[in-house]
């Protein structure tokens, strides 16, 4: 319950900052439960436009943006990048799962709220993250499980 109240306080703070300073404000990536909590706050947030987006359609983890082109006079994209992590030698790569990619990222000491969804397809991991983390990930993610990786 305490986490829920903390989320509500943080969301209202972002909404108020957007409204008072006439700037776009963004949350970190929210998990599915937090996204659900945001939807329960619709009445409290009706004074400012907001949108949820995770980098592509159907993402479970999403970032919350306050502001719109109509109210602020310009459009600002979500600060989300997609880092593609592939095996250096696909022929010798292990069969990697979402859990393997997430474990490698957590091992770098990265907070979960700067990471969005991780989509695993054809031995590659597509990691949605905040723009500020993209270069760090590209440089430091060199191995997932026992498989050498490249970005």
TrEMBL record:
Gene3D superfamilies assigned: 3.30.1370.160, 3.30.70.330
SUPFAM superfamilies linked to this entry: Alpha-L RNA-binding motif
Pfam families from the UniProt entry: YlmH_RBD
Record-linked InterPro entries: Nucleotide-bd_a/b_plait_sf, RqcP2_RBD
Domain Ribosome-associated protein quality control protein P2 RNA-binding: 75-149
The protein's name: Ribosome-associated protein quality control protein P2 RNA-binding domain-containing protein
